[in-house]
Amino acid sequence: MSGIRLRSAKPADLPELERVITSAYAAERARLSGIPDVTDGLDAHIRDDIVHIADRAGRILGVIVLIRKDAALLVANLAVAAEAQGAGIGGRLMQMAQQAAGEMGYDRLTLRTHRGMTATIDFYAARGWIETGRAGDTITMRKQL
User: Fold this and answer.
1) Among 5, 51, 121, 133, which is disulfide-ready with 9 (CB 3.0 to 4.6 Å)?
2) Residues 46 and 14 sit within 8 Å (Cβ to Cβ)
3) pTM of the model
4) How many CB atoms lie within 10 A of CB 51?
């Protein structure tokens, strides 16, 4: 994870962010149905929400999208490029999200994921997230801060 830098996303990052997200979800989209196009609306998220990226030497390797809600900060997307998975980038982005939530006065984070994305669910569970509901293919989770 050496040389990884976290920073806010800029509109000029959009094409590279779309590449990272597409890469991150490619295997799951190939094997599961019901996973939406998670790049849709990314430009609006950069403009209106909190989008942080992890890069190394100017190459974007990961992204987290956070949306302010009344009761909790929503992790709308966490994606690490396929070639960078397993290097701790996702964990580092999640730590940043927890810090940002606390600084904004939130006492918890929430998210939704696909029930078939077991590695993703395990990633969150290992970091203290708990499942709070299921509806169809969607699992909701919460992390108390």
Assistant:
1) 51
2) yes
3) 0.93
4) 22
